[in-house]
Write a structure and sequence with these properties.
Elements: E1 3-20, E2 23-41, E3 62-63, E4 66-69, H1 73-77, E5 93-95, E6 110-111, E7 120-130, E8 133-143, E9 146-148, H2 174-178, E10 211-213, E11 216-227, H3 230-233, E12 240-254, E13 275-283
Antiparallel strand pairs: 1-2, 2-7, 3-6, 4-5, 7-8, 8-11, 9-10, 11-12, 12-13
Length: about 280
Amino acid sequence: NVGKVRSTGFDGNVAFKQDIGNVSLTVRGNFTYSNNKILAADEANSAYPYIRDTGYRVNQAKGLIALGLFKDYDDIRNSPQQTEWGTVMPGDIKYKDINGDDKITEADMVPIGYPTTPEIVYGFGLSTGYKGFDFSFFFQGLGRESFWIDAKKTSPFVDTDDNSSIVSKNALLKVYADDHWSEDNRNVKALWPRLSGTLVENNIQRSTWFMRDGSFLRLKSVELGYKVPDKYTRLAHITNLRIYASGTNLLTFSKFKLWDPEMAGDGMRYPVQRVYNLGIQLSF
């Protein structure tokens, strides 16, 4: 338990309320920023400073720098030896030799990306009312977060469920079917490397190839309602009658387009649901 970490950050929220004639207005916002750095750790010295934890964030992700996909066998022969995770073939991911020893190993794994826990979390919203009408919305967002597409869990044609007694093959996601390396499509920047009936260990290593920006802004909730005036409800001995429509997770703004960014790297999981509601609040 020898170590020293410096954590910095701030947290705040603001609210503004104002009545303008018959219009009531409330605006709210919150913002949280958190960062940390390991100043000292009980770890062995290394010839490569980037392998150590000192000087980096807690739980800093480390991985390989991807240069693209191998175009052909000449490309493989003319590149640093890359056999640490099995024999490579054209269409496999090509990594950068960081330490200059002309081979790709775990010693070439460097700090990459932001933390998988966002350093920035924020939200803002508005609620307003005019006579019997009311309207509100709230946006939720996060930033400075990275995630990695889970190449093992989303790898097509292979069984990746270690806890299952029944062999089940992963499906070929449409995004992979539409954009993968093949003899007919030697795109060295294709979304997915070459297809294989077995798990290709070289292609599932943590690297910049599958690293994605996890930042997003979501319209978390929106609601529109109308309260029927009392002069009409009293006739039916009703003390309150409100009709409303609402929705959650209606819009998401993100650089990541394959699936909902809140699902992070596993697109095989059940997606975040978009929900619409129509309702009546009634009391006698």
